[in-house]
Task: structure prediction
Amino acid sequence: MDRNPLVRESDLQFLLREVFEVERLCALEPFSHLDLDTFELYISATRTLARERLYPLYREMDQAPPTFDGAHVATHPHMVTCYDQLAELGVIVASRPEEVGGAALPQTIVTIANLYLMAANAGAAGFPLLTAGAAHLVEAFGNDETRALFMRRMYDGEWTGTMALTEPHAGSSLAEITTRATPRPDGRYHVRGSKIFISGGDHDIRPNIVHMTLARIEGAPSGIKGVSLFAIPKLRPEGDDLVPNDVHTTQLIHKIGWKALPSVALNYGEDDDCIGWLIGEPGAGLKYMFQMMNEARLMVGANGVATASVAYFAALEYATTRRQGRSISNPSATSSAPIIDHPDVRRMLLRQKAIVEGGAALLVQTGLYADHAAAGPTQQRPRAAGVLDILTPVAKSFPAEWGFESNSLALQVFGGYGYTTEYMPEAWLRDQRLNSIHEGTTGIQGLDLLGRKVVARQGEALRALLEDLHQDVERATPHAHLSAHATSLARACQRLVVTTGKLASRGAGGDVAGMLNHSDNYLRSASVILVAWMWLKMATAAAQRDPSDFTRGKVAACDYWFREELVRADGWLRNCEDAESSFAALSPDAL
Result:
């Protein structure tokens, strides 16, 4: 086995070529100049950089995180050249159109390529990926001035970018932000306020950082409708010079993971000299920012898959080489067996495989809907966008939550060595833990899925998603080994529909709490059902191949998912319908 697969190439090839047939994306006009060879060339180049540059530096960067001297943040000494190489590869602009300097690659392909970067070194990969999202905001909603001033420099790799939403008092409640913007005669704004947990918010790898910031213009209404979007650079251009823009780092956050990427607290306007450029229309800031937030949610989901993947392959290699105990199947053996001979170790490895590969397939499926929503036939785009809205909270939270369980199993495979810093699983476990918090906690994702997405337009998008799912159920049914799984999936989907209807009626009748109290259970149910869909797709594609260890592994993981994971959805949905009240009705004093 490759001693450093990060993400196994044969698994991704299987997904791209056989399960999802991504070459069909080239039939869409924006991608008509591309072909499968082009896709694989970019993925290959990204894989090489990840393996040869980012992964060898991971341990160093984890053990020597950024430092703060009270005024400036210093990153790991190798981060500058890493960013140079990432920018040169085109990571920042890979999915953007050629007219802004991009490669116009489908988001599906970029997501797959990014898995290698994240598996190798999530913190280092965070810099260009955040910059890409910030620049895309300016591209989509800025004017000619702000595109020339900020977008070009970020896409060119000259400056970096961030998303600056959270404030110390407000957390995820963006309607409560208090950062203020006061109009100036020249059309720009004086800005004053504070932000916290800003990833990449200060560093020494580039001279300037553009903070895409939510703030409230003086006199704007309270709540979400009063929030606007601003580009606020650390250094502002004045003529041919860059001068300090009264943006100050006040704190470096000491995180348990993603240590190469600094997280900071910022103050704007301590000296009343912070200037921001309005992006788009006043009051539409949160609507605009959802573009970057959704991109970031899928980035976090990809990181969840990648972090689980690199740990899985480390555990698999360790299990094949570590010898301990006698095999149950061969108790008379006189020598110890590799621990992979023990059934419980294979159980843990199979669960990791099912989570990693199921999560990767979910990301590809989500990427395909994103590509069709952006580049498909005009009349079909709303349908794809609606399904994408449903998949986004699942594609963010499933890899984070189940990925953490997968990383925990990897550590368990290592036994006592797993909790030591001499081996890598403990570091990846720390990295993974952040993914369920980044870009909205799992609880927020559940509220979004149930409270907004599945009930939007009377459930139109949910029906569209299930129509696509049932096509794969029909394809699987003729295969003897998969027929029962196909029936189980169809039954689980019907149960989800019934529960959704009951909860929606409850909410429409005014019992919003009764609808949403179990949104986490609803999200978990949707997650295992959608990943079961992915495994049915993969097992159907594997059935077209000649039998081999590869195909047997796919079928075994599919069997595992249906027998061990999908069956859990019924209990979660029952709690949703029954309005189980153990925590909802409990007085805080009783805790």
Summary: The mean pLDDT is 95. The chain is about 55% helix and 10% strand. Residues 227 and 341 are 58 Å apart (CA to CA). Residues 160-283 form a domain with the Butyryl-CoA Dehydrogenase, subunit A; domain 2 fold (CATH 2.40.110.20).
